[in-house]
Write a structure and sequence with these properties.
The chain is globular and about 55 Å long. The chain has one domain: Vaccinia Virus protein VP39 (Rossmann fold, 3-Layer(aba) Sandwich), CATH 3.40.50. The chain has a 7-stranded mixed sheet with strand order 3-2-1-4-5-7-6. By secondary structure, it is of the alpha/beta class.
C-alpha cells in the first residue's frame, strides 16, 4: 500500500495532543526516572512532537541545555508554546541528518517517534555520532505488535471487522519490530552498547465515549486519518460499533491502558 494512504499526518499539534500527547506526558516522567541520566547535562531530543518529553526533561533533569528537533513545523511551534524555557532550543530537523557537531551532547532521548523514521538505523547512528563517548541514549515506542495501546487496538478491531482491508494500515502490521527483541536488535545495529529494554505502562482514562471518540475525528495520525477518510455512513457505523463494544464503568468512563517499550543504551 502506498505511503500516501497510511494517513501519517502529524502536523496539527492540538489534534495530536488530544489523540496521543496526553498519554505520552504520562510515560515521559517514568522513562526519565529509569534513564537516570543526571542533572546539569546537555541534552538532545530527537522528535520532540508537542513537547511532552521536553517538559519532563526540564522539570526533572535540570538540563544545562536542551536541543529538541522535529520535522513538523506545527509540532515545533506547539512545543515552543508548551515549554517556554530559555534553556530549550526547538528546531525543525531530521533524525536521519542531525545538524549538530560530533560528540556534542551528554544525553540523547527520543519519544514515540523512531518507528516513523524511514531509516531507523541511520537515525541511531546519527544519535551515536552526536553523543559524547559513554553518553546515555534512550528512546521509547508504543507496543504496537502486542496491542499494548488498548484504545487503539479497540479502534482497529472495530475498523477491520467492518473493512478487512484496514488491517494493512494498523501500526502492529506496519511496525512489527516494536518488541523487546526487535528494539534491542535495532539498537545493536545502530552501534549502541549495554542495551536494556523495559515496559512502561500507563492508564488511559476517558471521561465518556465522546472523550474516546473525538480524537479519532481530528485526523492526526494513522487511525484518525483512516477514520476521517471514511464516508459519513461508514464512519457512523464504526462509531456505533465502538460505542457498543467498549467497556464502561458505572459513571460512564472508559478505563484502558497503554504500554510502551523503553530502551536504554550507551554510546
Amino acid at each position: 500500500m502506498a505511503d500516501t494512504s497510511r494517513h501519517d499526518a502529524w502536523q496539527a499539534g492540538d489534534s495530536y495532543d488530544a489523540y496521543m500527547g496526553r498519554w505520552s506526558r504520562q510515560v515521559a516522567p517514568r522513562f526519565l526516572d529509569w534513564l537516570d541520566a543526571g542533572d546539569g547535562l546537555e541534552w538532545l531530543e530527537v522528535g520532540c512532537g508537542t513537547g511532552a518529553l521536553s517538559a519532563a526533561i526540564v522539570a526533572q533533569c535540570d538540563p544545562a541545555s536542551l536541543v529538541a528537533i522535529d520535522p513538523s513545523e506545527g509540532f515545533v511551534t506547539r512545543a515552543r508554546a508548551n515549554v517556554p524555557d530559555e534553556r530549550v532550543s526547538f528546531r525543525v530537523g531530521d533524525a536521519q541528518t542531525l545538524d549538530l557537531p560530533d560528540r556534542s551532547r551528554d544525553v540523547i532521548a527520543s519519544a514515540l517517534v523512531l518507528n516513523f523514521v524511514p531509516d531507523r538505523i541511520r537515525a541511531l547512528k546519527e544519535m551515536r555520532r552526536v553523543a559524547r563517548e559513554g553518553s546515555r541514549i534512550g528512546f521509547y515506542v508504543w507496543d504496537y505488535p502486542g496491542g499494548g495501546i488498548e484504545f487503539m487496538r479497540a479502534f482497529w478491531n472495530a475498523a477491520t471487522d467492518l473493512d478487512p482491508k484496514a488491517i494493512e494500515l494498523t501500526e502492529g502490521r506496519r511496525f512489527p519490530f516494536c518488541t523487546p527483541d526487535g528494539l534491542a536488535t535495532l539498537a545493536a545495529h545502530g552501534g549502541l552498547q549495554d542495551v536494556e529494554v523495559i515496559a512502561i505502562e500507563v492508564p488511559t482514562l476517558f471521561a465518556d465515549f465522546d472523550d474516546y471518540w473525538r480524537p479519532f475525528t481530528l485526523g492526526a495520525g494513522p487511525a484518525p486519518g483512516y477514520c476521517m477518510s471514511l464516508d459519513p455512513a461508514a464512519r457512523e457505523a464504526l462509531r456505533q460499533r465502538l460505542s457498543d463494544s467498549l467497556p464502561r464503568r458505572g459513571d460512564g468512563a472508559i478505563s484502558l491502558s497503554a504500554r510502551a517499550w523503553a530502551v536504554r543504551a550507551t554510546a
